[in-house]
Amino acid sequence: MRLSRYFLPVLKETPSEAQIVSHRLMLRAGMIKQSSAGIYSWLPLGFKVLKNIEKIVHEEQVRAGHIPMLMPTLQSADLWKESGRYDAYGPEMLRIRDRQDRDMLYGPTNEEMITDIFRSRVSSYKDLPLTLYHIQWKFRDEIRPRFGVMRGREFLMKDGYNFDLTKEDALHAYNRHLVSYLRTYERMGLQAIPMRADSGPIGGDDTHEFLVLADTGESEVFYDAEITDLKFGKREIDYDSVEACQAVLEEFTSRYARTDETHDEALFNEVPEERRRVARGIEVGQIFYFGTKYSDAMNATVQGPDGKPVAVHMGSHGIGVSRLLGAIIEASHDDKGIIWPEGVTPFHVGIVNLKSGDAEADAACEALYDSFTKLGLEPLYDDRNERAGGKFATMDLIGLPWRITVGPRGLKNGIVELTSRRTGESEELPPEEAVAKVAAIYANL
Ligand code: 5CA
Questions:
Q1: φ, ψ for residue 223 (rounded to 5)?
Q2: For the purposes of burial, counting CB atoms within 10 Å of the CB of 154, is it exposed (0-12), middle (13-18) or buried (19 or more)?
């Protein structure tokens, strides 16, 4: 993409309404525009990152054996009356009446709808286990939408639902989600720690939240510092193996890590004092096992091996896709702007032309642009006729992890400059070598 042809409405002033750094940076970098309280338009740069995050979530869900689908945003109230949650959900639910006077709602989550799909289309235990998921917009009329996309009213969520014959099978589905989430967040450059939590309006006994440590997080968390040394990395796990998933679960959840809702001071005090940490965290996902809560209420049964109907064991598993943009920025920025992890960056590399209009500099930038494009990478080329300082400031603000600076002086010696946004370190090298180096970084992700 050539910046002269892109739509990147960066703001010079720091918007006063934004209280936390990720919200400020998303507005300044031209990623989002508020349309009404807690509801945002995703401008091209923000939309690109949102799509990148969505893609990682999809890939990791499919890797775990889960099946993508899509359910609507608008739901009929009838299903929610059946489950008993129509009244229980309270004012957070946006209720709508259509022209036939039917009660509708903008879905805050989809347990009822998926249970209805399941009961109307699945009748035998032979069709189990089954895990379906979708990535769809949700609406919760939060009393205090704030911090930009972090606590929106309209937000994008991945929500997945498992259907199993037995409690043991459903707990395996729970563990499988936990493992797949570890890999998902790490691919986005995040450390998200699974912590024992409270199930709230979704219900159920077993639940973990995934928290990214950040001072601006809304949850208070208590944990054993040893947890932050754990890395999942690129481990290839057999998701069908109960033992393999169980082993990862034990590795990542055996140390003390709880949100304030489930915090137990006495247990926490058993952690050696020098390892006890009290901090704040951003909840980027939550997994639940709730047994037959919905299948009982909505009569979702299958014919068991003995021919008798059995209520299916279920769980639901959410990832805050749009919230993740805020969480990643909170975890990765400096005073000049965003620092995107390679896994989610909107463009792979920035090309800054120090002297647009200079025939040699223009030609060298075009050649770099072509080389990256041929390798399947997306460069953002700042071809505008602007001062170098302004171009650097824009690149730093929007946070591409790598920048190549091209100027007539370097070109005389056959070199360009490759700069890491994270470390600020630069090296001078021939253009082909700069391309090869950037390509290798992305190839190794
Ligand atoms: N049905 C279950 C799991 S599919 C569910 O709704 N879980 S949840 O309530 O925990 O939401 C899942 C994730 O969505 C949360 O972990 C959080 O990351 C994100 N989320 C929840 N509320 C908001 C909000 N108001 N704005 C942005 N993201 C949100």
A1: -155, 165
A2: buried
**Is the pLDDT confidence value at 92 over 80?**
yes
Tokens representing residue 376 in the block: 């399947």
Mean pLDDT, residues 249-266 taken together: 95
C-alpha span between 246 and 232 (Å, rounded): 14
Separation CA 32–CA 23 (nearest Å): 9
Cβ–ligand 1 distance for 66 under 6 Å, the answer no
215 and 278 inside one domain: yes
**Measured distance CA(439)–CA(192) in Å, rounded:** 28
In a domain, residue 342? The reply is no
Please indicate, yes or no, whether the overall pTM of this predicted structure exceeds 0.90: yes
Residue 310: give its domain's CATH number.
3.30.930.10
pLDDT over threshold 80, residue 201: no
Whether the CB of 421 sits within 6 Å of ligand 1: no
Instruction: Give, using CA atoms, the residue closest to atom 23 of ligand 1.
Output: 151
pLDDT over 90 at 135, yes or no = yes
